[in-house]
Write a structure and sequence with these properties.
Layout: H1 2-9, H2 12-68, H3 72-82, H4 87-123, H5 130-136, H6 139-155, H7 159-180, H8 186-209, H9 221-252, H10 255-268, H11 273-291, H12 295-322, H13 324-329, H14 339-354, H15 358-364, H16 368-421
Helix pairs in contact: 2-4, 2-6, 2-7, 2-8, 2-9, 2-10, 2-11, 2-12, 3-4, 3-6, 3-9, 3-11, 4-5, 4-6, 5-8, 6-7, 6-8, 7-8, 9-10, 9-16, 10-14, 11-12, 12-14, 14-16, 15-16
Length: 432
């Protein structure tokens, strides 16, 4: 066994993947811990009802931000990964993406600001939620900016900046503000989050442009739009799978049920922080291998990364499946009602992990349209099934529908990876 490990690590690409995955994992552990603590602070400081209003408003902001980014997040990652050593090229890609996405995000934020009372009353029948929507509206701009900037940093393998930009800094700032000022309402928490995102985006934009060289040329706008258009629908549908359930639950059920589902969802997503850490390393590699037409490099890196994922994530999945009440109880006694929700969502995320980085495999290899087809099926499935199952079976029905379509999305992506690239990521034991 030891000899096999040594043989694998003798390969320079595998060694680079493993070392950078460990670094990314360490930072992702910090990020996952920060997100967990942030959600813990929100649940305990605000209570189930106010936490429900905040999580519902945040889900709306996340979904609208996905629309505002116009698909440029994965496009920035792909083109930056292929041109990581060319500073002028990297800067032009980032500037082009922000130039078009931020005005759209601003327009959406202004619209949400003015329509907040109507949305809170007419759509959700929750008039107390209006102020939290008002204050979280600017977060749409901040979320769009930090995501695109983080993708640019990730494409350059700057993991130490990329992960905090997208997943740590704004949660840290917002959580600190909530505790420092003893906040107990969703609207003030939403305001702190919007301000925190503004600070985070400004700081990491400076980091992203710092020390860039003058090598390379600007990328063709046609090429960027050609990649962004299918990516746009992919991102929207991915976000719909992730964030539409709490929004739909908010339409049908009380705010407390939104809080139980949201907390369970965020705990379940901790199973994927290892996947996200590995994605940070391998996604730019896939883009670079594709630019060199090195399909064997893609295959070896993909299979090696799945092995890392399976070995790393299995203990976490088992822990969550066996001790759901303990984990939910950390957020307050009443949150133990969400134990079954957590178990269902963990199963869906477990399939996400064991299939590997199939989404990035398709997008970074120029097969965005296959991924678009996959996400349309899963996204539409969620949008149709979650309202139906929520009305029939409540929050448990919403969790079951969400977990099923998360699993289906990844299994369909495995099929297209096999069809387009010639290997099956589920057969991770095959020789590499």
């Amino acid at each position: 066994m030891l000899s096999k490990v040594k043989a694998i690590l003798n390969d320079a690409e595998h060694r680079h993947t493993a070392i950078n995955a460990v670094i990314a994992l360490a930072i992702r552990v910090l990020g996952a811990g920060m997100a967990f603590v942030f959600n813990l602070i929100i649940a305990r400081q605000l209570g189930a009802e106010q936490a429900g209003y905040f999580f519902l408003s945040f889900a709306i902001a996340m979904l609208l931000s996905a629309f505002a980014r116009l698909g440029f997040d994965n496009t920035v990652l792909r083109f930056t990964g292929a041109n990581a050593n060319n500073g002028t090229t990297v800067k032009s890609i980032l500037s082009f993406a922000l130039k078009y996405s931020l005005p759209v995000a601003s327009a959406i934020a202004v619209t949400l600001y003015f329509l907040s009372p109507v949305i809170a009353n007419s759509v959700f029948n929750k008039p107390q939620m209006a102020n939290s929507l008002v204050f979280i509206a600017p977060a749409i701009i901040g979320l769009s900016a930090v995501t695109i900037i983080a993708m640019s940093l990730q494409g350059r393998h700057n993991l130490i900046a990329s992960i905090p930009c997208q997943n740590i800094a704004h949660f840290l700032l917002c959580g600190a503000a909530v505790l420092s000022f003893n906040t107990s309402t969703a609207n003030i928490t939403a305001l702190y989050l919007s301000l925190s995102l503004g600070v985070t985006a400004s700081f990491f934009y400076w980091i992203a442009l710092k020390s860039l060289n003058t090598a390379g040329n600007t990328v063709s706008p046609h090429d960027l739009w050609h990649s962004a258009r299918p990516n746009w629908l992919i991102v929207i549908m991915n976000q719909a799978v992730q964030w539409s359930a709490p929004i739909i639950i908010g339409v049908y059920l009380v705010a407390e049920q939104v809080a139980y589902f949201s907390v369970a969802q965020r705990i379940a997503m901790l199973t994927t922080f290892i996947l996200m850490a590995v994605n940070l390393v391998v996604a730019p590699k896939f883009a670079n291998f594709n630019a060199q037409n090195d399909l064997e490099g893609i295959r070896k890196t993909a299979l090696f990364s799945v092995r890392l994922l399976v070995l790393s994530a299995l203990p976490i999945v088992l822990f969550m499946l066996l001790l759901p009440e303990f984990l939910m109880g950390l957020f307050g006694e009443q949150f133990k009602q969400g134990a079954l929700i957590l178990q269902i969502l963990v199963l869906g995320q477990a399939i996400n992990v064991v299939t590997g980085s199939v989404g990035f495999l398709l997008m970074m290899s120029g097969n965005e349209r296959d991924m678009r087809f996959v996400t349309i099926i899963s996204g539409c499935g969620v949008l149709v099934s979650v309202p139906l199952f929520t009305s029939l079976y409540g929050v448990i029905g919403a969790a079951a529908a969400t977990a099923f379509f998360i699993s289906l999305q990844n299994l369909l992506a495995v099929y297209f990876v096999k069809k387009r690239l010639g290997f099956n990521t589920l057969k991770f034991w095959q020789k590499i």
